[in-house]
Amino acid sequence: MNAAAVVPAAGRGERLGPGAPKALRELGGVPLLVHAVRALARSRAVTLVVVVAPVDGTARVRALLDQYGLDGHDGTAIAVVPGGDTRQESVRLGLAAVPATVDVVLVHDAARPLVPVDVVDAVARAVADGAEAVVPAVPLADTVKQVGPAAAPGRPEPVVGTPDRSTLRAVQTPQGFRREVLLRVHEKALLDGVDATDDAGLVERYGGSVVVVPGHEEAFKVTRPLDLVLAEAVLARRRS
Ligand code: C5P
């Protein structure tokens, strides 16, 4: 198997509060992006990581990755390309830098710095074993309610349904794809003007099949300030 990973890291991450772009925020003194790239490079399957950086921050990101000696480490090459206005555009631009010799492409958010290598391996293996698209996922702790529009601004939203929790999963990254499948759905989405929050969603939209492998609670996404507190605690436990 020859796998490449695309890491969209061109977002600002404003929900985390003011400061540096989210991918460059530090966890245990090391940028989230560096953690995420290391987690991918740890997988034997991954030979190339394409980091998609903010357009005005490409040189800075390249210098950062070099500072941590990531290029060539663990037998994994690192490329840095400029991103786009949306996550989807950033992934498409990253995918364009993946050579045709690669058969499996993983897409991993820089905002999931602590994903265990077993999850990365399981996703890549499931694609190599024949799936066209694979997502790691975990059961939900919370019951989920579907809500409708409020009767008037400022009024509470009415609950309109309660999906059966046992059939729901929270989806993480890396998501894995056969390269040509991911290319095809991104090309179609560009032509159709479709914007999706995750890549597997594009595969579903265009009639492909997506399967689930077990995710991991430590692969959570660092979105809000509390997530950073939790991530620091997980890292401290790993280091002790
Ligand atoms: O905003 P959100 O947390 O959903 O972003 C998910 C990932 O997509 C982040 O790693 C972010 O840096 C990336 N992204 C990007 N280009 C954008 C917007 C988000 O690469 N224009």
UniProtKB/TrEMBL annotation:
The protein's enzyme class: transferase
Cross-referenced InterPro entries: IspD, IspD/TarI, IspD/TarI_cytidylyltransf_bact, ISPD_synthase_CS, Nucleotide-diphossugar_trans
Enzyme Commission code(s) on record: 2.7.7.60
Feature type site, description Transition state stabilizer: 15, 22
Function: Catalyzes the formation of 4-diphosphocytidyl-2-C-methyl-D-erythritol from CTP and 2-C-methyl-D-erythritol 4-phosphate (MEP).
Cited PROSITE patterns: ISPD (PS01295)
Site entry: Positions MEP for the nucleophilic attack: 165, 221
HAMAP family, per database record: IspD (MF_00108)
Pfam families: IspD
Family label: Belongs to the IspD/TarI cytidylyltransferase family. IspD subfamily.
Reactions catalysed: 2-C-methyl-D-erythritol 4-phosphate + CTP + H(+) = 4-CDP-2-C-methyl-D-erythritol + diphosphate
Protein keywords: Isoprene biosynthesis, Nucleotidyltransferase, Transferase
Pathway involvement of the protein, from the record: Isoprenoid biosynthesis; isopentenyl diphosphate biosynthesis via DXP pathway; isopentenyl diphosphate from 1-deoxy-D-xylulose 5-phosphate: step 2/6
Name recorded for this polypeptide: 2-C-methyl-D-erythritol 4-phosphate cytidylyltransferase
Organism: Streptacidiphilus alkalitolerans
GO molecular function: 2-C-methyl-D-erythritol 4-phosphate cytidylyltransferase activity
